Amino acid sequence: MGQVIDLSGFDKSSKQDWEATVRQELNIQHPIENLRWSHDPSIDIDPIYFSSDVDSLNELNSPVQENPEVVNFAKVEIGKPSETLTFCEKISPFCDAFILDFSKIQKIHDSEIIKLILSGKPIVHFTGLCYQTINDLLPIIKNIKVSGSLRIDPIGTSDNIDDEMIYNLIDQSELSNFSLMTIRGDELIRSGASIVQEIGTVFSIMVDNINRLTDKGCHVNTLLSKTEVATVTGQDFFHEVAKIRSYRILAGAIGMEFGKDSHYMRINTTTSLQNASDSDEENNIIRNTIASMAAITGGVDTINVKPHLSINPTLDSHRTALNIPNLLKEESYFNKVRNPSEGSYYLERLTQMMSAAAWKFFQEIESQGGFIQARNSQWLEKQFDSHKKWLKRVNEK
Questions:
Q1: Exposure pattern of 164-177 as b/e (b: 16+ CB <10 Å)?
Q2: What is the mean pLDDT of residues 113-121?
Q3: Quick one: how many helices (H) and strands (E) in the chain?
Q4: 241, part of any domain
């Protein structure tokens, strides 16, 4: 039985009490306004939050996993068959699953090597696919008990893969346990999008995909279940936690727009080394750890931690990266707590503000005619450029 802790002896302080104390000690007339800061031009962060800041919020409908198990992925670039197999054998004990990157090849010449790799893991994500490699994969995975994702982004980053092929793939029995479409939020961040812009754009892409494919005869529920998102997690802990939670909330909202009462969307993340150090590379291990903690706390489904040696990664650096989620799960029990960020006044408020701002940006894209129109007219690029200029001004202060 859990121990009951009596906190009745502690005085309850209000926001007004806090403001009065800060006003006196720091000689600031308006402490909330003067200490407010921004991580995103559409979100202002107060220095402190109380229950009164949360009581007025609508209940956040954020679907979470009943069993919060996070799958630890290792990324493998498919190249020379013998080297690829050797690398997989060495890192396999430290990961739960593989991301197989086919971007450097146009055809699978040695199917037996791929079979050997797939036979060792029940979950696999494929990326960097083209028409030919997809057609080569189908007979390989036909008799192997494996599930995962093809990570196809038909109007984003996937080359030479159109709606017609996705329509044909949906009915393939070999892919019954696979998601087909992965919307690349990570690519949007690399293009200069803010977190809010990333989330809003991802759901605009999702809506465009669903509308086009339902016109071809695909069922909405099938498309929703076959769609995932790939994002990137940085070191701004609380904002990254709120980002994953906002994804969950808006995925549910999009599902309801298409007539589905409850929609759980799989979220895959990779740690960001955008601000990685090349001279003091061990510090990147700390950066990876903070990003991993944020991702798991926020509620991602899968995580791929990049090696801390960002330029020339070694086998040891791959093992170190893979062991970060292992330690968080096995030693710190991060995967044993359901929705650990729930109830934090700051995180609840931040999630609400981020969700609202992302939904507003999504609506702005839709008012431009949807993602494709917004991209082709360069409206979206201008929004990302505006955020990059804002970041530059903030960094120069």
A1: ebbeebbeeebbee
A2: 88
A3: 16, 10
A4: yes
